[in-house]
Every structure is written in C-alpha cells, then in structure tokens.
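Sequence in, structure out. First:
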Amino acid sequence: MSDITIERRERVTLVRFDRGDGVNGLSHALIKELTDVARSFERVFVVNALHHFDDGAAFVTEAYRVLRPGGELMIFGLGLGPGQRREDWYVYEYFERTLELDRARYPAPATICAWMGAAGFDDCASRVGHRIDQTAMAQAYLNSGALTRESTSQLTLLSPEEFEAGLQRLRDAISAAKNRGESLQLRADLKIYATSGRRR
C-alpha cells in the first residue's frame, strides 16, 4: 500500500507518494518554490500553460534544475510564434486581435528548443502531439451560451467591447450564410506541439 502525504502551502500543493520501492510519486507546485528538489524529478510536463508564464526561458532553466540527469522536460502547446502558420480557428476569424495576441504569447517550438539549449538540455525535438479538428453549427453554438469571454484565455484578453464586436461579426456571418440558403459552420483545426529535451 502506498504512503501518501499531502502538504498544503501558500499557492502550492505538494503530493508525494512512496510506492514501497523507494520511488516517490508526483509533486504539483510552483516550480520556483521547489527549493529542496534539485535533480529530483524524472519528468516535468507543461500542458498548454507555458504561454501564461511570465518568463518561459527562466522556467526552462528551473526545469533543468529540478530534473535528474537524463530527465525529460515536455512542453505541450500551440506553436504560434512569429513565422508559424496560422491555425484555422473561429476565434481568430471573428475576434480581432486574438491571433496577434497569441502570436506574442505562444513561443514557437524553435524558440522553446533555443531556451532548452541555453539551459543545457540535449536532444530537443518538436512534433505534433495532438490535433484538434472540430466543426460546429454556428447558430446552435451561439445559442448554447458556451461562447463567453471566459470560455478561452484568448477571449479573456479582449475588452468587453472587442468581445461584443466579435460576437456581432459572427452574428452577421450567420445571417449572411442564411441569406444564401446555407448554415455557417465554425471550424477549429489546431495543432498542439510536443516539444521535449533531456537534461545532461
């Protein structure tokens, strides 16, 4: 049976378990506050969150510090930095500035690899780890109430006026399609990149 310890600190939860074989389990915390764990982890995962960090390069350096030699850092997220192809997503189509904001927030996989190299990681590689490919009928989606400013981080960055202008553009597109005897579909075709490197 596992011995599980849960310790709560300010804004941090550490969960550690001993499987009985001397191998500790999972820790969840703000990495800069893990001061006693240098060279402790086999893997560090970041799932669709790096764009929320104040300093991505500093995070990568901290991940290097807490990983064991041979340990792996894996970062998952959109690859929207400068020069990357535009993703096909209705949010970018109808809500102005969202793509521009995301290009500034999401580092390209090549940028992440550069940060990893500077921190000391080897073998940085990036690939498409997941693809979101969905369509929805625009009017039904709008009627569902699911499209709010809080539904994606992209929309939370817009002012209420910018969000409402995007909703109006969507309503206008729905009306124009209806006038042509068509139903507007909303499309999401997004690639989630997996970028990884190993600690020396």
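Second:
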Amino acid sequence: MSRMWFLTGCLACVLVFGPALADAQAAQGEKKDDAAKKEDKDEKKDEKKGERYITLGTLSGQIVRVGDGGSTFTIRLRGAIPTWVPTRIWYGRVQGRTQFTPTSEDLDIVLADEAKIRIPMRPELDEKGRPKPGTPKRDPKDRDSNLGGMKGEPGDLAKDQWVTVTLGRSTNPKNPQVVAIVVLVQRDTANYNKRDKDN
C-alpha cells in the first residue's frame, strides 16, 4: 500500500513540476541564445569602430630596417650611460667626474592596422626645381594635422629616417599586443639623399 502511495506521489510531482522544469530549461536556452547574439553584435560594433588602443608612450630613433612594405620596421634607440670616474684624491676626499658612455639598442616595431603615418610637408617645386612661395599648404580635410606634417602611408617609411613613434596596447583581451599607433617622421634624410643623387 505504501509503495502505491509513493508511486502516486512521484507521478503527481512529475505532472505538476514537469512543465515548469521544461519552461525553465527553455528560458535558459533562450538566455544563452540572447547572450550569444549580444556577443556577435558587440564584435560587429568593435569591427565597425576599429580596434582601440591605450597609449603607452613615445620613442625616438633612426630607422635601420623596413620590412613587409612598411608594416614592420626596426629603429635604433640611442642613449648614454653615466658612470662616475675618480680623478684624484684631495685632502682625503676622492674627486671625480661623470663620464657618459654612448649606447644604442635596436627595437622591432609592428604598425597597427589603422596607424597614422605623418611625413614632413614637402613644398611644391617650380620648373627650375626651387620651392614655390606659399607652399606647402595644410590640407583642410586632414583631421590629424595637429600631429604635425602631412598624411603619409606605411610605404613612405624608409631606412635612415628619424622618427618619433607612439606605442599603444590593444584593449582586445584576446590579443593585447603592443603596436605603433602614430609614426611621425622628423627628418626624411632617406628621401633627401635620393633627391641629391637625382640632381
């Protein structure tokens, strides 16, 4: 008799709570689908906006190598290490001077997909090869004119140019790489040497 009551109670529980459990599972499935759709929308928004970067700082140096059409390059950073050199002992005190030892280090840099390249403004030349007065003029459509120079492309980067590079870290947690987001060419010695050879 007790078994019969037990089986009857189990059957009643299934009949009462079964549909509610099925509804709860269906709602969880819908929530997962909604979450997946939101992630897809967020990824599409990020793709439209472009990747964002956190500015880390700037480096200045001379380009020693350019590869992959300008998408990667190597700059040589120059500096000096101070060392104290004793020169004499005067009344029981050691006297000396600071000597600076020059040092350099090569650093490989990767350009961001949307990196801004700025090159020195070049004046327009007349028939005799002299710069025309009133040139160069700033492009009014150039939104990044406050960075200096004029708009350039990765292909404009060449060996022996002196550049200031602004580094940034990607905010994408899946790929937090450090890349160059702005490259400002300070001295375009490579192109000046080519002009001298042509003339």
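Remark: The chain has two domains: 17-49, 51-77+105-198.
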